[in-house]
Amino acid sequence: MKHLITSLSLAVVVLLTSCGSQKFQASFTEDKPLYAAVNELVKHPNNIKAQNDLKELYALSVERHEQAVAVYKTSTDERRWDKMLNEYNALQQMYTHAQSAPALLKLVQPKSYLQELQDVREDAAEYFYNKGEQLMAANSREQSLQANEAFRRSNSYVIGYKDAKQLIQQSYEQSVVNVIVNRIQDDNLFFTTWGNTGIRYRPEDYQESLVRELGGRNASIVPARFYTDRDADRENIDADWAVDVRWRSVDADASVPYQFSRNVSRSIEVGKDSANKPIYKTVYATLHITRRTFSVNGALDYNVHDLVNNKDIDQGLLTQNLSWDDSYATYTVDSRALDNNDWLLVRNRNSNFGPSKEEILNTLMKRMYPDLRRRLEQATS
User: Fold this and answer.
1) How confident is the model at residue 351 (pLDDT cuts 50, 70, 90)?
2) Which of 107, 175, 254, 300 has a CA 20 to 30 Å removed from the CA of 287?
3) Are residues 330 and 187 in the same domain?
4) Is the pTM of this model over 0.85?
5) Range of the structural domain that residue 162 is part of
6) Could you report the per-residue pLDDT of 12-66, keeping only the tens digit for each?
7) Number of domains the chain is built from
8) Cα–Cα separations (whole angstroms), residue 250 to 187, 231, 303, 365
9) Is 117 domain-assigned?
10) What is the rounded radius of gyration, in angstroms, for the C-alpha atoms of the chain?
């Protein structure tokens, strides 16, 4: 059964648009001379030159578009369907414009190409439907994804073509894999002597975040369902793919401390005079500041492995460089000369030890995480 409703609706829209327009526009550059003659005749119906130009140019445009269609019909390029539709749409546009301008109907006998347009859509829908069926029969993830795209294209040419909508869903489900995201490993590879600030580094947090942001069990972002290794074990999930993330190296360097002094002063109230007015005194102190910089280079390996076929899907190395500039201070003379910022330096005792392993791993992971998530999403798409 031919689906004519869409084509007829399109024709009505084009016709109404043309009637309400002051000037007709060509959809192909080659048709611009024709539309120049059309617009001239709309303004001056008795223009003999425009009449003669229209008769000749209209026939040439029809011949050119129909010849182009004939060439595309012999092509094996899958874009041929869209190219044929473009040519037929140009011809149909010429027809609707002619129908809306009485001066044109006296000079040419326009033909409607609605049936040709619908025939091409039907043929394209059938082609991609058959292609989808063949790909789906291969029963592999790659071919199922290609089949899904083929069924989508079939349904785009003719909405509701056969059971394409059901096959879109079926081919997608057939391509879905169960992916286990394992715990991120660091193997205690560094920082045996650096301090601990109390900040916790929990690789499970990043593991769970990856599973959640990649779509979890919904398979809505990519054709894959994601589980942590703990959830997979608890629910007896058969894994198709596995994701392993491991710190390859984290190299930390601290600079030689740089020390300098800075004099500070403040005016403070020390009492009241006989008139109960405040009495001020300037007090002085010297800050002895120690500044250290710390730099860290981190390298994180990731691997996506097909467990069923024992092959790597994707692997790579993410790198990141961090630096800290930390200072602390002691003081001499009068503590009353110190302001709030000075006290922060004095109380910053942790600078003696530098950033902790936990602080560094958290900062590195937060920097690398977006790229890691993007790569895993691409690998499982």
Assistant:
1) low
2) 254
3) yes
4) no
5) 124-175
6) 334 334 444 457 777 788 888 888 888 888 888 888 898 888 889 989 999 999 9
7) 3
8) 11, 29, 18, 12
9) no
10) 37
